[in-house]
Amino acid sequence: MLTGKAKGLFEKWLNVEELRSDTVDSLKKHEAFYFIIKWLDEIGFVSQITTTYYDGYFFQWLINITHPIRSEYGFETREEALTDLIKNCDEILNRKQLV
Fold first, then answer.
1. At 11, which helix (H) or strand (E)?
2. Could you give the domains of the chain?
3. 25 phi-psi bin (left φ>0, alpha ψ -120 to 50, beta other)
4. pTM of the predicted protein model
């Protein structure tokens, strides 16, 4: 789910703020989603999953940062939308100059 600098920063946060010795890879999927979204909120990547109806329901995501970013298309499940949201945050964080 997370790679590179983003993974390292998340795991450091998880160990210090949540007092957990887990790595992102050792968490169960639902735990990883919960902690990653909580961490993203804390670093200013506030996100949301919305539903849209067009010939059926579709899930979309939105990241509220300086210039909000939306998913370009809908997903059949909330889990697919959340996975794609985390992937996009990961890419953005790994491109940024982080301390």
1. helix 4-17
2. 4-95 (3.30.160)
3. alpha
4. 0.84
